[in-house]
Each structure stands twice: as C-alpha cells, then as structure tokens.
From TrEMBL:
Belongs to the universal stress protein A family. Pfam families: Usp. InterPro entries: Rossmann-like_a/b/a_fold (IPR014729), Universal_stress_UspA (IPR006015), UspA (IPR006016). This is Nucleotide-binding universal stress UspA family protein. It comes from Nocardioides kongjuensis.
Amino acid sequence: MTESPSRIVVGYDGSSGADAALTWAAQEAANGSDAPAELRVVLVGTAMDPVLSGYRHVMDRAVEDWRAGLSERLAALGRADATVEVRHGTVVPELLAAAEKASLLVVGSAGHGLATGTWTGSVSQHLARHAACPVVVVRPRHSTVVDRIVVGVDDSPASAKALRFACERARRTGEEVSAVHGYFSALAHVLTFDGAESEVADRRRAAAEQLVKDLCRECAAEFPDVEIEPEAIPVRAGQVLVDASRAASLVVVGSRGRDAFSEMLLGSVSQHVLGHAQCPVAIVR
C-alpha cells in the first residue's frame, strides 16, 4: 500500500459541517498506513480592525470556544496529537496559506456564515479554485454502505490527475473506482428518416467509450490491485456525477475540464458537483 498524505489541513469553525470534515480527515489520515498523516486543524478569526472591534471580541470568543471543544473531539477521533492553529484574517486567504505545503485541504460544505471572515458555502468554491493541493469538500453521504469512488473523466490533464488521485486512494482503502465520462450532444438525439440512430451519434458514442477505456487501461497498469470500471454515459457530465454520487463514498473531479469556458480556474462541471453531490467531493488540480 502507498503512504497516506503527509499532511492534512482541516478548516474548522465549530459547525456540524466542520465536524463532519474533521471526522473525514481523521479517518483519511489513518487510511492504509501504519503511521497516520499529520493532521492540522485551522481556526480562523477576524483580522484586527478598529471599526469592527466589538464584532472581533465576539468572534474571538467564538474561536476560543471552538478551540476548547476540539481537544475532546480530537481525542474521541484518536487524534489527540493533531495540531490546532488559530489564524486571524479572512477565511479563504488564511486557509490557502495554511495549506501551502499540505497534501490535502478538507472543509465542510457550509458553516456558520457569520459575516466576513467566517464560513459560507462559497468558501469551498473559492478554495477549490485556488488551493495548490487537492481540496475535499465533505458533503453528507446519501449511502454509507457503498465502497465505490466515482471519478469524472474526459481528455483533459486535470481529469487524468483526478483518476490517479482516485486510484491512489482506492489502493489505500480497498474500494473500487468507477471512471465516469458523461457526454451530451444534440446529435445523439437526431434520428434518420428510417428511425435508426445517426451515424454521427454512433461515432460519438464509440469515441466516448474508447476514451474512458484508454484512460482506465493506463491507470490499471500503474494500479493493478485496484478495480477500475469504465463508464460512458450520454448525459451531461455534471448531472451524471451527481447521480452517481448517490452510491459513492467520494466523487473526484478535476478542477477544470475541456468544457470549462465559463470559469478560468474552476470548471462548470466541478462547480455543479460541489453544489449538488450527495457525498464528499474531491477537487484535484
């Protein structure tokens, strides 16, 4: 088995979402390794600002309350050795700085949302766009009994990295990997006059199936002990992955695929999955 990530950073704000992220990160740190990864929990309070001095006092008290409760929580997770760090500033820049040398950054899908400097659902979007390491956004799982990692694939470099990330994790956890390529074209619904599928649609389907098979074959050579299942489905990629997330422990996507014309740093598929998946989501750059 490969070693688990050397350092996992968790953003924490005392919310139920942050607690779910902490639990996931503690489990991930121990996966497949005799020596658990370093776990660092980061709490972010407000920056110093005379105008907001009253608010800062309230926020600092909340941060101390979160910190006080962490010791017991970390002990219950078997990670009393975790580092707890309090930083002051705006959440996204501070977490990005804390995760500069991390192997993984883990956050909840939403938190308290207490004005600037604290958590909102958009925090995960910003982190996924800019973090130097993979980001895992821990969303509630629809099913807790499945052992399957779903990874979205296309012909982009980010997709290849996402598939490799999924296989590396599967090798540690013993899960299977479903490499899913969602494709959609209006041509797939065009029929000829005799009711047969058009030749163009047939070629599109064959190309999609070949693409995902080739990607899986390459990864299978590197990860022979991981079961990788190729799937090509004629539905928009974002919807395919959200549907697949109902029976997955994790969905992995690249930060930007071939159709990411609407976002410079985070593709539209990744955004859709982050907002709607029914299990944790990993964004790989």
